[in-house]
Amino acid sequence: QLQVVESGGGLVEPGGSLRLSCTASGFTLPYAAIGWFRQAPGKNREGLACISSHDSSTYYEDSVKGRFTISRDNTNAPNTVYLQMNLLRPDDTAVYYCAVERLALCVLPLMPADFGSWGQGTQVTVSS
Predict the structure, then answer these.
(1) Pick from 33, 102, 110, 108: which is nearest to 72 by CA?
(2) Alpha-carbon span 20 to 109, nearest angstrom
(3) pLDDT 10s digits, 79-114
(4) Per-residue confidence band for 4, with pLDDT thresholds at 50, 70 and 90
(5) How far is the CA of 119 from the CAs of 19, 54, 67, 70, 123, in angstroms?
(6) Pairing with 95, which of 14, 21, 35, 58 sits 20 to 30 Å away (CA)?
(7) Residue 70's closest CA among 81, 54, 86, 55?
């Protein structure tokens, strides 16, 4: 059974950084395209970034471009994808999710319906 688990969330002050991890089980992560999403209270789930399976190309939505970085280390941590988040702002506060793209492709805009095997999410709160 395909499963992903997010971790690394927490409380951070504005301008700070966090690194989220998405760890997979039941399949080999380097062969999957992985996306990161977030959902704030009362809002729709929003796509943030995606990393492709075949060459680890990265794709970002405009809302996080330049501040967030998605990455994978197929040698040292082959079953983990990371989301490095810098210059965090209060409006980045949300539950953050990773998920597996159904066709192993990253296509912008990132649509939640194109992804499956969602994790339970990790809470990120940006506040002073």
Answers:
(1) 33
(2) 21
(3) 899 999 999 999 999 999 999 888 888 999 999 999
(4) very high
(5) 16, 22, 23, 17, 12
(6) 58
(7) 81
Per-residue pLDDT at 28 exceeds 90: no
Per-residue b or e along 29-43, where b marks 16 or more CB atoms closer than 10 Å to that residue's CB: bbebbbbbbbeeeee
CA 43, distance to chain mean position in Å, is 17
Sole residue written with tokens 């990790």: 122
Which tokens is 29 given? Answer: 């992560």
As given in the structure block, the two tokens for residue 90 are 């209060």
Q: What's the confidence (pLDDT) of residue 29?
A: 63
Average pLDDT over residues 34-41: 96
Tell me which residue has tokens 């301008």: 15
Determine the Cα–Cα distance for residues 23 and 69; give it in Å rounded to an integer. 16
